[in-house]
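Assess this today:

___
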Amino acid sequence: MKRSSRSKSIVVESIVYPTKGERRETRRNKHPINLHNAIVSDDLSSIILANKRLLPTIAKSVRQEELLEQLQQYRVIIATGPAGGGKTYIPVADALDRLAAGTINTLIWLRPSIEAGVSLGMLPGKLEDKIDPFFIPIRQAIYKKLGPSFGKRWLAWARQTEKVQFLSTQHLRGMTLENAFVQLDEAQNCTYKELKMVLTRMGEGSQFVFSGDPEQDDLDSGYNRAKTKTGWPEFVSRLAVLKDLVGITRFVNADSVRDPLQAKLLEYI
């Protein structure tokens, strides 16, 4: 039986954000994207993202503004501090902006495969299935920036074409990460040797972001059979002296943008 030679097409809706006094309107792209050709040329995810016309990433606190500025100035950035300040979201949103603008080509997110508290044991499925649960916060950040429906479709395409990669730090040895935005999230769950290993993966044209909360160190858990210790405080301290090469944003409890109650409770726990 002959396969149809007709290639699939999709029509992208883009929101045009108004200037003051204008109404927002939604336009349909007059030139549908050829899905077959886009996949073959490995540029579907960037084309779709560019047509989305993303709202700019806007800082909600002084620390977020500082982090955004450092993302434009440095190739190595550290965001450290308590939960809720935007240490994860701001780099994710900024990376999506730059991918849509065509200034970067690949987004790589890293996390140590360390569970919080009690171990759930061996997870079922292939390697990708085993590490996916650890990247739920990254996916949530992507969906927040792009919207849940569009974000899920775009992320599926982006992973298929390897524009986006989710990797465990345990599988990085020997790799070189070039011409990419790379973010290590939950960095407090890495030993000093692991953090050093991640940093030495830096290839030409890459930017590395390390985000972590020193108060949520799961390596200190009684369920950590290896009895290893976090290397996050030492890592941050050593790189802090390189002020011309490394940008560091130190968040505090008052920087939380999740909920006023959450920020208040952090002062007492």
